[in-house]
Amino acid sequence: MTLRAGHGPAGGGVQACPITPVLDIVFSRWTTPILWTLNQFGRQRFVELHRNIGAITAKVLTQRLRQLERDGLVVRTYHPEVPPRVEYEISELGRSLAPLFAALTDWSSEHLVEVERARAAFDGADA
């Protein structure tokens, strides 16, 4: 699929922002914490992953893991044991997002205080 600035897939309609599909994949509500956790802690069983992420429900974690597997960002491995064992790990494609997350971490460290100041000033102006 070829994307050009201001256009959708080749032969498709107009797309306002060419990175929108990436944002939809990578920055949905639970995707980033799941990928970060798998990258930090390596291969994990569902229960471990659920515990390490925290506030996510089992249903939502299941849905997000399926989507991430479909997108090629997570690998699911089924072990036919008794009882069966399923493990999840970040794929090479998922790992390729590390520079993006590192850049966002750097930006956050450098600018989040400014954002908080701007919010406080804005909220104070409404009072």
How would you explain this protein's 3D organization?
This protein has 127 residues and is mainly alpha-helical. 57% of the residues lie in helices and 11% in strands. The protein has six helices and three strands; from the N terminus they run ααβααββαα. The chain has a three-stranded antiparallel β-sheet with strand order 1-3-2. The longest helix is centred in the last third of the chain and has 29 residues, at 98-126. The protein is elongated and about 60 Å long. The termini are far apart.
Uncertain segments of ≥5 residues (pLDDT<50)? 1-8
What pattern of helices and strands is seen along the backbone?
A: HHEHHEEHH
Strand order of the largest sheet: 1-3-2
* Largest pleated sheet: 3 strands, antiparallel
Tell me the overall shape: elongated
Computed structural class: mainly alpha
Question: What is the average per-residue confidence, as pLDDT, rounded to a whole number?
Answer: 87
Tally of DSSP β-strands: 3
Which features characterize this protein?
11% strand, disordered N terminus, elongated, mainly alpha, single chain, three-stranded antiparallel β-sheet, 3 strands, 127 residues
In short:
The chain has 127 residues and is mainly α. Helix content is 57%, strand content 11%.
